[in-house]
Design goal:
2 domains, five-stranded mixed β-sheet, two-stranded antiparallel ribbon, 22 helices, globular
Length: 552
């Protein structure tokens, strides 16, 4: 666990290169689907909800502690509010959202501010990983761990969004770095700092509190049994217990300071947390239904697409190597991986973004495996293999970025309909329109479904037929006569198709006589298509759905 205090020039240059790469990947395409004259919010369903509930207060963007929205911790929203306040101070951002069609001009820069906070958090995570890796396995491992995370596809993708997952991962990484320090020193001050970092992680995303397993393991390993004489073993037990208590209290203090609503707005806070817990247990309808074990699903789906297959295999090999070696550093990281993965795998809601907080620990385990090889040939072989995997992951991440700078398929479908559909043409939808639907009305991306339905019913350019309130795949949209157009997205149909969902099969039978026009962007790099699997995790599909316009 040697930590070299004076980095050499090559180390500094490599660190700068890794940081620059990470920043470039997170900024390229950051303007994807920002509000414009066609859609009021972005095509990411959580961004509008987060902005309206976590940042705006009665339509005004101003710092405020009591959000009344606690499905997530509040720390990220405070950072977002601060970013907007800075922008307002320098005249870069508006403070009030005016009603009407011009609102998008004010919402776009506010959403961009939230995305920039995520991107900055993603880059700062590289520094935290370097610090953790250097303390655990040496400076080379810190650089390797940072390089892996810099190009991890899901970490890059979700750093483009105004959501809590990437900021929470920053605080998870800080907690791991402080846990590494506890392992080296065992000092009470470091235990307190590690606990505060855990509290900040929980104040951003509640499940991130599980990173406390890492400093807890460090506390227990920092006081080895043989360091105490036979008669003082009991003193060791009391010292460990005291440090664990201090760790818990520091984590609680960090959480309350960064999420004061837990005290100031206790009824609303407990209501929203209870709602999230109930949703995790019950699931979300057909989404994730019959996907088997959550632990298997996250491995073969979330991590497969979030890391990419080469990096996933590399990380699994690193976990196996760490289990074999069982060094204190390995145990520290494995403790968090095991506890966190065990909890998210037990839930019925299984978004890909839930595995992102695991990536720093997996990157560090991978780096620890590489630097532990002995002998010139094994070292060179692992370095070459690692470099190839990092390059492959970087290409995948860049290909996803490239999709985000292309005209979105929902906008392409809208342009096609406006160009070819006669005025007043009937357009049928299988669900209440939202982020998956071409924005026939400005409000189709609004968080409130009532607003979206009212906007659809008020359209005159198109006559939109919707399923009955609270239903989907309502066959009445084909009556009294067949609609001229039917619009579907695989964001809607992917799980229906996977399940052979009977209402979907009946709905699809009515489309037999229609011709199709398909709009789709596929990740590609240097002209080479990376393809699109039949099943893509829902929160990766946001950026490149397949929109099909059925026309009669």
């Amino acid at each position: 666990m040697a930590f070299q205090p004076k980095p050499r020039l090559w180390c500094i240059l490599l660190a700068v290169g890794i940081a620059f790469t990470g920043l470039a990947l997170r900024l390229w395409g950051i303007g994807w689907s920002l509000p414009n004259a066609h859609h009021l919010f972005s095509y990411h369903p959580d961004e509008g909800v987060n902005l309206v509930n976590g940042v705006l207060q009665n339509g005004v963007a101003r710092p405020h502690l009591i959000l009344g929205f606690y499905n997530y911790g509040t720390l990220y929203f405070y950072l977002w509010q601060a970013a907007i306040a800075v922008g307002q101070t320098y005249g870069l951002l508006p403070s009030t959202v005016r009603p009407g069609s011009e609102s998008w001009e004010m919402l776009a820069p506010m959403l961009l501010a939230g995305r920039l906070v995520s991107a900055v958090c993603g880059v700062l995570t590289l520094w935290a990983l370097y610090a953790a890796g250097a303390r655990l396995y040496g400076r080379k491992a810190g650089l390797i761990g940072a390089a892996i995370y810099a190009v991890t596809p899901a970490a890059v993708l979700h750093a483009h969004f105004a959501t809590v997952d990437v900021p929470a991962t920053l605080f998870v990484s800080l907690a791991l770095a402080m846990a590494a320090r506890v392992l080296r020193t065992g000092r009470l001050r470091d235990v307190v700092l590690a606990g505060v970092a855990c509290g900040l992680a929980a104040a951003t995303k509640y499940t991130a509190v599980l990173v406390v397993a890492a400093p807890a393991a460090a506390v227990m390993m920092a006081a080895p049994r043989d360091a105490f004489p036979e008669g003082a073993r009991r003193r060791r037990v009391w010292m460990v217990a005291a440090h664990l208590l201090v760790l818990s209290l520091a984590a609680l203090a960090g959480f309350v300071v960064a999420c004061p609503a837990a005290l100031l707005d206790w009824p609303r806070f407990t209501r929203d947390v209870a709602f999230e817990v109930a949703k995790s247990r019950a699931g979300m309808g057909v989404l994730f239904a019959h996907t088997g074990s959550g632990w298997v699903y996250h491995l073969v789906t979330s991590m497969r697409y979030g890391l990419g297959m080469p990096l996933l295999v590399w990380c699994l090999a690193a976990v196996a190597y760490a289990l074999w070696r069982r060094r204190p550093q390995d145990i520290l990281l494995l403790a968090f991986v095991a506890v966190y993965y065990g909890v998210i795998g037990a839930a019925q809601v299984r978004f890909l973004r839930y595995v992102i907080p695991l990536f720093p620990a997996l990157a560090l385990l991978s780096a620890g495996m590489v630097t532990d090889w002995r002998g010139r040939f094994p070292q060179r072989l692992t370095v070459v293999a690692g470099c190839l995997i990092v390059v492959a992951s970087g290409i995948t991440a860049a290909a996803l970025d490239h999709v985000m700078v292309l005209p979105d398929v929902r906008d392409q479908a809208l342009a096609y309909l406006e160009r070819t559909a006669p005025y007043g043409s009937t357009v049928a939808l299988a669900t209440t329109p939202w982020y998956w639907t071409p924005p026939l009305a400005l409000e189709f991306t609004a968080p409130d479904p009532r607003i979206r339905r009212e906007a659809a019913e008020a359209l005159t350019r198109f006559r939109v037929r919707l399923p009955a309130q609270g239903t989907e795949l309502d066959l009445s949209v084909f009556q009294p006569d067949l609609p001229r157009f039917v619009i579907l997205s695989d964001l809607e149909t992917e799980d229906w198709q996977r399940l052979d969902y009977p209402p979907w099969l009946a709905f699809r039978a009515h489309l037999a006589g229609y011709r199709t026009r398909v709009f789709q962007n596929v990740p590609r790099w240097c002209g080479i298509s990376l393809g699109k699997p039949a099943y893509v995790p829902n929160d990766m599909l946001y950026i490149y759905p397949r929109v099909t316009v059925y026309l009669r």
